[in-house]
Design goal:
Blueprint: H1 3-24, H2 30-37, H3 41-69, H4 71-91, H5 95-113, H6 116-125, H7 131-160, H8 162-174, H9 176-179, H10 189-194, H11 197-209, H12 212-241, H13 247-269, H14 275-295, H15 300-312, H16 317-329, H17 334-362, H18 369-386
């Protein structure tokens, strides 16, 4: 294994840590921004839902640009967009800045600096026999940000207020720009020529979605976004309504901590198990955990156990989905094809976060949502287990 591969994995993990760690904190701002700036919880929840949709729409384009021109350049633009979006809300808080900054700019930013183009670059840099493990390690390292950013933002909010905390997160996002130089700043001429790019993206997406099993994989990914976006945004508020306000940050931090070994295990598993089988198992475990959590009386211990179980399989879908796509279509357009699949994930995220925002605005609780999450998760299990292995696995 070349030392340069480890440099790429470490840089990719750092970028993912910052991008996903920052967005993991958004749920902590729902009530503080309402108290300090008069921004309605429903508006911020809707902006976070829009963030998920903007991320999903930008991800195929970010992946295609990364495949053609280099993932590092896409990462740098993503870091700049995240910093700009967070800074806009920090220095000019209001309804419009929340929608534009958090809803649109940070969505585009995470599409560039998060998992899509970045993990595709890791896959291209890694040797075939350890590709799943390296992608899993980058995802696992990226989980450090989810564990670290949540208490960091929570402390800033408590000590200095929500807008100062957003300014601190904007400064952290700027660090993605120098990190990006390490990750595939310019692909090889042959790889760039072979990649579909933006012009070929529509035709590439049509061909991929015409494949029954890729379509099932994409449909299952909807559930991932639906479940996780709801929990990221609304779990802190749900716990506050249950009389445990201090547990929101603790639960999200626990998710991040347990996601570190979980992502590595799932990435490692993709080298030995057909990815769709493992993905179906993940959605089933999540659905069972959600059902038990919703059916029992809320408690601190129960919340920590729930967060630990969910955390272990939180980002495990990402290396497995990348592995499933690479086995069917190869590595050349992995960033773009993952982006096409990920759009379904983010439509789910938009509906999950948005529905939660409507519930809290008009019903005052989240009781009606838990059974829906269970049904969606079990459906994803069925879709992944229906998928057939590729007739000929690609390198």
């Amino acid at each position: 294994m070349k030392a340069s591969i480890w440099a790429v994995v470490i840089a990719a993990a750092a970028s993912i840590s910052l991008a996903l760690g920052i967005r993991q904190t958004f749920g902590l701002f729902v009530l503080p921004l309402a108290t300090e700036q008069g921004i309605a919880p429903g508006l911020l929840g809707a902006a976070i839902a829009l963030h998920n949709l903007a991320w999903g729409l930008a991800q195929p384009m970010g992946g295609a640009l990364g495949d053609r021109y280099g993932a590092g350049r896409v990462m740098a633009v993503g870091g700049a967009c995240m910093a700009l979006g967070l800074g806009l809300v920090a220095f000019a808080p209001g309804s419009a800045s929340v929608v534009i900054g958090i809803g649109i700019l940070t969505g585009i930013g995470v599409a560039g600096a998060g998992t899509g183009a970045v993990l595709a670059a890791v896959g291209r840099a890694a040797p075939l026999e350890r590709r799943g493990e390296m992608i899993g390690l980058a995802s696992a390292g990226g989980s450090l940000g989810q564990a670290a950013m949540v208490p960091f933002a929570d402390q800033l909010i408590g000590a200095w207020g929500a807008t100062t905390a957003l300014a601190g997160l904007a400064l952290a996002a700027v660090a993605v720009i120098p990190i990006a130089r390490t990750v595939e700043w310019r692909p090889t001429a042959a790889a760039a020529k072979a990649a579909a790019g933006l012009a070929g993206l529509p035709a590439l997406a049509r061909r991929a979605l015409a494949d029954r099993d890729f379509a099932l994989l994409t449909g299952g990914f909807f559930a991932c976004g639906f479940q996780l976006a709801f929990l990221t945004v609304h779990l802190p508020s749900h716990l506050t309504l249950c009389g445990m306000p201090a547990m929101g940050a603790m639960a999200l931090m626990t998710v991040g901590l347990f996601n570190i070994p979980g992502s590595w295990v799932c990435g490692r598993a993709s080298d030995y198990i057909r990815p769709e089988i493992a993905l179906g198992a993940i959605y089933l475990v999540r659905s069972l955990a959600i059902a038990v959590f919703a059916a029992t009386v809320p408690s601190e211990l129960g919340t920590i156990i729930f967060a630990a179980v969910m955390g272990f399989v939180w980002l495990g879908t990402i290396p497995l989905t990348n592995a499933a796509i690479a086995r069917r279509f190869g590595m050349t357009d992995l960033g773009a094809l993952y982006g096409v699949c990920f759009l379904s994930h983010q439509v789910g995220g938009f509906l999950g976060a948005g529905s939660g925002a409507l519930l809290i605005q008009y019903a005052g609780n989240y009781d009606a949502f838990w059974p829906v999450m269970v049904v969606v998760g079990v459906s994803a299990t069925a879709m992944n287990w229906m998928a057939r292995p590729p007739a000929q696995a690609m390198a």
